[in-house]
Design a protein that fits this description.
Blueprint lengths: L1 H28 L6 H28 L17
Helix pairs in contact: 1-2
């Protein structure tokens, strides 16, 4: 459990940055620009709240050595 929590903490800021970027683009590039001062704090809070569970779900995938089956011709120690 400690490893998953550590990986989640590493991924958290990246996920939060992506979520904030998407939210900020939506606010700044649409007609909502007039309410920018009100909406951007909400974007920050929502990105912070959503980043934790999304990071928790991504962490096991990041800890896997291989996320898909290796082809039969890919032999361990083949040198490539």
């Amino acid at each position: 459990m400690k490893t998953r929590l550590a990986v989640t903490a590493l991924i958290f800021m990246v996920v939060q940055g992506v979520l904030f970027g998407v939210g900020a683009l939506l606010v700044l590039s649409t007609a909502m620009r007039a309410e920018m001062e009100t909406l951007l704090p909400y974007v920050i809070v929502v990105s912070f709240a959503l980043a934790a569970p999304i990071s928790w779900l991504i962490a096991p995938r990041m800890m896997q050595r291989y996320s898909r089956r290796r082809p039969s011709w890919d032999v361990e120690g083949a040198g490539y």
